[in-house]
Amino acid sequence: MNKMTSECFKLGIPDYVTIETEEGSAVVSTANREAGWKGTKVEFTEASGYEEVSITSVDAVKGVKVRWSYQWPDKVRFLGDAWERGYGDLEWRGMSGRRIMPWYFLAAVPGEAMCFGVMVQPRAMCYWQGVRKALRCTWMCAAAEEEYCWKEGRCMRQRSYVKNILIIQWMKQ
């Protein structure tokens, strides 16, 4: 009988982050586990078994795209979710950069499977894309809780966006 084993697989710090606000957008590289542009900051925190991503901004954030360089194995197949529910249309498919996989997905080659997903808080939507030599995760942010903080001697409004937890598990059979 085959026995499944699992071990934590961490993508680490992403190579690029695209921040999109009402003011425009910018592609920024990550440094010291964070990326920022104008009044928006994206932070990456490593924890046991997962990565946490938090977004804070003084601007209204429309979305954040995170990209990791990753070489997918040959003949990899993907099983993704549907936005609300599957209507008998979920299937293992090959790689397509146009395919959107909401919330979580599986990537498999014979004998091995990788599981990627998020535990997302309210007010955000998330989807994954497996593309050639990379993995992308996109958060579409909605209204955020507004907080007020003192900065540079004055009270400033700051929007605190969701904390998203990336759960990445590697399973072998």
Radius of gyration: 17 Å
Give the helix proportion (percent range).
Answer: under 10%
- List the helices and strands in order: EEEEEEEEEEEEEEEE
- Give the number of DSSP strands: 16
Task: Describe this structure as you would to a colleague.
With 173 residues, this protein is mainly β. It contains no helices and 16 strands. Strands 1, 4, 5, 6, 8, 9, 11, 12, 15 and 16 form a ten-stranded antiparallel β-sheet that branches. The protein has a six-stranded antiparallel β-sheet with strand order 3-2-7-14-13-10, with no helix packed on it. A hairpin with a 2-residue loop joins strand 4 and strand 5. The radius of gyration is 17 Å and the shape is globular. It starts with a strand and ends with a strand. The relative contact order is 0.23.
